[in-house]
Design goal:
globular, Rossmann fold, Helicase, Ruva Protein, domain 3, about 475 residues, 3 domains
Length: about 475
Amino acid sequence: MHRILIVDDEPAARYGIRRALEGPEIQVFEAGSAEEARRLIRLHRPGVMLADINMPHEDGIALLHSLEQDTHPPLTIMVTAYGAARVAVEAMKAGAYDYIVKPFEIDELRLAVQRALERIALEEENRELKKQVLSDGHFGGLIGKSPAMLRVFEIAEKLAATDVTVLIQGESGTGKEVLAREIHARSPRAAGPFVAVNCAALPETLIESELFGYERGAFTGASRERAGRFEQAHRGTLFLDEIGDMNPVTQAKVLRALEARTVERLGGNRAIPVDVRILSATHKDIAAEVAAGRFREDLFFRLKVVIVEIPPLRLRSQDLPLLIQSFLEIYASRHRRPGMSLATDTLDRLHRYSWPGNVRELRNVIEGCVVLGRSSTIQVQDLPPEIRELPSRSEMGPEGRSLLGEEDPGRPSGSWLSLPYREARKRFESNYIAARLRANGGNVSRTAAQIGLHRQSLHQKLRELGIESRQLGKSAGG
């Protein structure tokens, strides 16, 4: 049943429109003033409103403005007097869907209302399609049905329709760049470029030339001019990954570029206009970095207009089956190993692992198992040692304690639970990284690749935790 509201101070005008529109599938309500119209809108939620522009006390355009904050305002068709085209244009700017001019033909009125109802039906269909996509657990390349991930998808969908600056936070491997790409792909800038810059992977001596470009002769080896990433992303999206690793000098220049919407190439003095949307990401606590003086507060405020937090995989374990099945299908097809499946014990080990490398680590593990699996059914022995050596459920006691004398790594013990969060996290990071380094003979590059960190990021983490990779390499060798 379609609901239509007629707003006009003249009873005869309302009566004429009602007679023209009423039918088995249409319910019509009448209001003689803007105040009465708002009451009926709250009560009946009509899909379409026909509002006369010329009314005493409060006209149709004022009524339209008063509904701007309504979560579900009716689609409005303004009714205006002949020759009042300027007023009609003003109504359209105020948010009216359409307008008709008095005196109008009955068929003209019915056609305008029919177009409005078709528009409502199309919007409803789009909403249902989006709900269906989310219920399938896919948002572009991101996968998940947990409440936390569905909330991320919902927020990202809303952000995609805007041009707002977004800061994506989350641990390494959670899918920050995947989310950024999907926001861009669903945005009005989708036809423009998506340019990604990893601020942690670029040496400090190169990051400015990468971001802002350079003129010929700006430095030794600059034999020709080169546009920077800001210019390359013109009319598109610039994704600044691991923004927390950017040095203070570059931070100041990025802030200036965001405020002025212009850049200057190294060795040049021209202000080059750039039209870019900024999406950034970090695995660091930027607020803590600001408090420590390592990140500019003014740049932080520029970047965090909206913050989206992607939860780590260990906090959304109900997404594991969907992720595992998706990766299994992808890599079985890619590597021509059809019919691959997981043994029950294998699935149990995957569920019990804490996934410090998050979705990236899970994806790599599944691909490795598909490639190296001895048969079409992936067994426990096909898993990497850090997962394979976890005790099975049959070896675990009721409180998560191994019958072999070991604690379940996926479940915090009493001693861990007694620690403050930051201290527990620091101890876990220290133990985890030290163990992985020891297993790799102290090789930082190999360890970084395995756990999903950039080599420079791992070096920084080692300095923060006071870990000597060389000593771990010696202990592994001895």
